[in-house]
Amino acid sequence: MKQLKWSVLAITVAGVSYLGAGSASEYASPLSLIADPSGGVLYIAEDTGQQVAIFDIESETVTEKIPLNAPPTSLALTHDGNRLYVATASPKDQVAVIDIQNSKIIDSIPVGHTPQDLALSPDGSNLYVCNRFDNEVAVIDTETKQNLATIPVLREPVACALTPDGSILVVANHLPTGPGDGEYVAAKVTLIDTQSNNVSANIQLPNGSTSLRGACVSPDGKYAYVTHILGRFHLPTTQLERGWMNTNALSVIDLEKMELLNTVLLDNV
Question: Which of 56, 103, 114, 269 has the most CB atoms around its CB within 10 Å?
């Protein structure tokens, strides 16, 4: 455990020194990362740099940079560590396929408007793509690079996560649907059955939940977790400090019952 803590610290410090070494114009804006199966290498998506940086954990150095045709938004790595999928946002949105051995783009997959997050099935056969401004999730066959299905969701899917067995895809919708002056205004979490590629449920979050950012699933596949902001805009504005009007929150979803279990406040209120 102590070794893990030092490893995390080393990565954090190394990342800060890497970004701070140059002038402001050289900032690469890292926004997403993924570790290879061995745990010795990090792949970092850099927005402003429009590239993927390869970071060696032992030496704490960036060993290589792979240029992209557009700013990256998300990464997915095959379980053998040989292929890296990179979602990029541009007028012609696509997912770039990188051969890790050669550090080169070997293919590109056309997708929808602003692919925001990726999830790879356990067997590596299907790639799930959150097309944010098309309000949909695309299912891509990784061998043929063809679109197998397009699944409508709610509003601006920005994050997704699969259960360990690959049976359920959890999708975080960034914003609420419906009018903003209603009694209930909150974003929802969509659960997709990956066997049928149909929506199984849309889980309501507490009133005022919005700006969903991340999603993950517990190792046993029983619970999903999403981060978001919990706004209290339906109450009179009496104080802004200490999260009285907006609080960062984590909601826990029971995937067996397909219902909200609890919402935990993250700020010191």
Answer: 114
Tens digits of residue pLDDT in 61-71: 999 999 999 99
Identity of the amino acid at 154: L
The overall longest dimension of the chain from CA atoms, in Å, is 58
Over the stretch 197-243, which tens digit does the pLDDT of each residue have? 999 999 999 999 999 999 999 999 999 999 999 988 777 776 666 65
Which residues contact residue 47 at a Cβ distance below 8 angstroms, ignoring those fewer than 6 apart? 28, 29, 30, 31, 71, 72, 73
Structure tokens given for 50: 């429009």
Short-list 212, 232, 161, CA closest to 191: 161
Nearest to 150 by CA among 134, 139, 162, 161: 139
Question: Pairing between strand 83-88 and 215-217?
Answer: unpaired
What is the signed CA dihedral for 158, 164, 168, 171, rounded to 10 degrees? -10
DSSP label of 242: G
Separation of alpha carbons 213 and 39, rounded Å: 25
Specify the amino acid at residue 241. Answer: E
Instruction: Return the residue matching tokens 């056969």.
Output: 125
With CA atoms as reference, report the closest residue to 164 among 106, 123, 220, 125.
220
Which DSSP letter does residue 14 get?
H
Q: What percent of the chain has pLDDT over 70?
A: 87
Q: How far apart are CA 32 and CA 116, in angstroms?
A: 11
